[in-house]
Design goal:
Helix content is about 40%, strand content about 20%. With about 200 residues, it is α+β, with helices and mostly antiparallel strands. It has one domain. It has a five-stranded antiparallel β-sheet with strand order 1-2-3-4-5, sandwiched between helices.
């Protein structure tokens, strides 16, 4: 190998090292801001999912009991309060959509009724599957009537949920997420009724 080749290898190595260092430095500067934005987005979604609540307490102890199925994962569970009075629960779920995971916050009242749902993040096709985040889809009657113990489905699957036009896979993912959240809330409600309290040991 000649002197020119060695010089080229050294130059390329130096460039790679410097590039990696710059990327690492930039990441160290932007990571806290990104993390803060994600935290704020989740807080907004919690509030949107259960508007009557002002405080949210995470319940990680319940997660092992909530078995994931149908490409849907219960990621986080929160008890919701307003002036220390229990208002219900917010369940954050991740369901596999057409293009990737759809992360949602689903609010369930202390009576077991679905309060609201909010899409935290998604990567569905713009103009098609991405329409799942629209209010017209998320606030339709089928969702407003849902409660623990019910199993939702899109109309194509003989259910009551109006799917987003040309985005049945994305719509089904949202429905699976809502069903998983309702199941999680049912577990919490049954625990509370048995223990007579509102905390998990």
């Amino acid at each position: 190998m000649g002197k020119y080749e060695w010089r080229l290898i050294v130059v390329l190595t130096v460039i790679c090292v410097l590039s990696g260092g710059v990327l690492g430095w930039v990441n160290s500067l932007t990571a806290p801001a990104i993390a803060e934005q994600e935290k704020l987005a989740k807080q907004r979604a919690l509030q949107e999912a259960l508007p009557m609540a002002t405080e949210f307490a995470a319940e990680p102890a319940i997660l092992p009991e909530l078995v994931s199925k149908d490409r849907t994962r219960v990621a986080e569970v929160y008890r919701a309060y307003s002036e220390d009075k229990p208002q219900g629960y917010v369940v954050i779920v991740e369901a596999r959509g057409y293009a990737g995971p759809i992360r949602m916050a689903v609010g369930v009242t202390a009576e077991g009724n679905l309060a609201a749902l909010a899409v935290i993040s998604q990567s569905e096709t713009p103009g098609l599957g991405a329409e799942i985040k629209n209010k017209s889809f998320l606030t339709q009657p089928a969702f407003r009537r849902a409660k623990v113990g019910t199993e939702l489905a899109v109309k194509k699957d003989r259910g009551e949920v109006d799917a987003v036009s040309s985005a049945t896979i994305s719509s089904r993912a949202v429905v699976r997420g809502v069903n998983a959240a309702l199941t999680a809330a049912q577990v919490l409600l049954e625990r509370d009724q048995t223990s007579g309290g509102d905390h998990i040991d």
